[in-house]
Every structure is written in C-alpha cells, then in structure tokens.
What we know:
15% strand; single chain
Amino acid sequence: MATSTERLTADEERTLSRLYQRLINSRTASLRNGGLEVLGRYYDADTYMRSIGLNVPPGYDALRTVIAWPAQAADTIEERLDVEGFRTSASDAPSEVLWDIWQASGLDEESQLAHADALIYGRAYVVVGTDATGGPAITVESPLWMTHERDPLTRQVRAAARFIQDPGEVDLPEYAHSATAVAASLFLPGQTVQVVHEGGGAGGWTVVDRDAHGMPQIPVVPLVNRPRVADRAGRSEMLRVIPVADACCRAITNLQIATEFQAVPQRYILGATPEDFEDADGNKVPAWEAYLGRVWALANDQAKAGQFPAAELRNFTDAITQYGKLAASLQGVPLSYFAAGADNPTSADAIRAEEARLVKACERRQRAFGGPWEQVLRLAVWITEGGNYPEGVEKLATIWRDPSTPTMAAKADYVSKMVAAQVFPPAYGPEALGLPVSEQERIAELWQQADPASRLADSLNRATRTRTAQPDNGTTGEEAPDGPER
C-alpha cells in the first residue's frame, strides 16, 4: 500500500480522539466503574484480595489464594449459548444460505468468544467487511481495543473505532520499527477509514486508506450484556459475585495460615536451659533432631513439656460454604456450582427446579444477543446480494439451542407426542429435538431417499400404536373397559 499524506477532517479527528479517550478510560477505570483490565484479571484469577496485613504474616504472601468464582459466573451462562441456525421468518425452515455464511466466517467458534467477552467485560463487537473475493467477512473484536458511540436519538451506532498497538499490521515502511505508533480503523456512516499515528492517540492521524463502501449502516455491531436505559454500554456478569469471591479468598487464605501454624498441635517446653539441647561433647543438637526426639526426653527434671490443642478449622470451611451459597443465590444458579460438597438434587424435577433462574437468564441473553447476530447476518446478505436486501431478510430470526438440560429421552417423548397429536409436522421433529443443522439436513436427505409408500405406512403404524397405547380414559389396555351403567 502506498504512503498517503491525506489527513482526517476536523470532525473525523474529533470523533477519533473522542473514541480513543473513551477506550482508555474504560480500560483503566476502577472495578466499580467497570474497568476492563481489572475485570480481565478477575476472570483470569490474577487479582489477589486486599489485606490489612494482620492475617498474613511477613514471608507468607505465597499462601494468598484467588478463587475463580467470577469466571464461573460468566462461563456458566456462556456454556449454554449455542447458535444452531437462522431462519427468515417464524414459519420457514432454517436458512442454508445464512448458515453457510456463518460457517464460512468461522462463527461456530468465534461466536463463543464474542459471548464470553460480552459476559466478562459487558460488551463485545462484531465487524462485517469483505474478503479478497468480495464476499462477506465477519470478525469478532475485543472491547479492550474497540469502542463505539451511539446516536442519542436513534440509539444506533454512529461511530466506532478499532485501535491496534502494532504498527506491523499497517503496510507503511516508515512505521515498521516504531514502538509508539498506533493504527486505527475508524467506522463512519458509509465509509471506513484506516489511519495511523506516530506517538500516541491524540491528533495527527495519517489516512492510510479510505473505503467508501456505502453500507446502509455502520458495519460494527455491539453485543451488550445487561444494558440499561441509562447505561447502554453494558455491565459485566461477574460484578455481583466479585465481592463475595474476595471475601471467600480471605477465608481460604486464613485457612491456609491456620493450617500452617495451628492445624498440627504445637509443643512447648517450660524450665529448659540451653544445655538441654547440647550433646555430650557440648555441640548443639540440630533443630530437626531436637524436634523429633530430644524435646520429649530431657535430662532436666525441672523442665516440663506439653502441647497446645490443634486449631478447629471447621469454622473456616463453614464460612467458605456460606460464601458459596451467597454467590449461588446472587447468580441464580444451583448451589453445587459454587459451594463444594453441596447436596445433589434428588431427581430430574429437582434439577430443573434448581436451574429455573439460570435457564431464564440464558434465555434473556439469547434474546439480547440474537438481535445483534441477526443484524450481522443482514449486513452479510447485503454484501452477498450486491447491495440489496432480499425479501424476508427483515424477519430474520436466530435459532438457539435449548439452554435447559432435559434428557434426550424426555425430548424425544415430547416431540413424538406432539407429532402424533399433529401439533408438529413430522419434518419439524429433528429441529424440535435440538439437532444441529447439519444433522437435520442429513435426516431430510435420508427421508427423501426412502420409499414414499413405506414412509406413509410407517407413519400410520406409529400413529396407530400411539393411540392404542394411550387411550383417552387413561387405561393401558388395548380396549377400554365398559363404564358403569347410568
């Protein structure tokens, strides 16, 4: 790419500088203000609890403990967010075209990263562009290096920027060995501007490339977790658990200190003299030998030996369990997710009852993240269709995997009954079972290859068996008994 001397306009300069400052502020803010860097350390279990120095003796800092409950709070929801496909309306089958775009961009894996970052930091970003062939290219970006701002009236993204602290990604020889150069992609209505700046992020940006793509909207789609009317930037899923995790870290650290000093009964000696720890030649007895033997066999009849009782550690374990219960209640998950040794549910119904809040939280995230993914696919279709929206794309809907944990036997029983009652058409069965789109397509191909007459006979036989096995009067025999005479 040739070197350019073009500069940003005054409005573009102000927008980019404003976005750069917003990014720096969000990264370096305190935990209370949702600082991204401190949230990342909590997720990585790399932030130690604060201590006033009374419970951890000097030299024992290595015993400080970090518990990964904040990561558990985010991962518990992320593990249940799986996109299964897209359809263009509520009545249509999953779209193969949209699913091909999804897989071609590697979003089977990348979508999981986007969901994780949104839950950890409060937001993540998806950028839609074009590849070398002119087709859609969809990438997932971290909020650590990307930010946006919304129009206060329409609530739509009006500008966004992705910053790169690596001049090697910009094909400009004069910046190849610079340690302070900052490159950026500025996303504005109808165009994307690639810029670079030597020595910081305020002013003096040089335009490297200006792409007037003419997209109907800015091709940056934020995935926001827990937005509010007054704060649409999102909140981390870990914030509620972090204070409880800090308290639990202190309890575990105190437990380790107590284990080190007081778990084993401490021995004491009264009335001993230094000569009692010398051998016959006047040499001092090594500490380990005195500890193992000589302490309990002193020649001085005035000395008395004894031991203190061992510390009771159960109060620490009870406190840790109590913290786990509190964290589970705040996060709305089963107790076993946070409290070690919690009782197991007694039945499948008990499991579903314990997971009710968790399942609902996952369904809320599916709705919150489904809209942005649909927006991403609309832009991808716009690129594929050469700048046009095909009919029906405005009704695009995301198909999510069921976030609950029913057994396959229970789901199969439910689907078979709904098909037998003609509530579901037979073709909807594989999708209702939650099978992946690839397996649904394979099942459809196998059914097409089967003989139509045999399929009809098999369907009739199944329907007959279902009606016979489940008569209306609730009996299990093939014939209903005569009722009482009236």
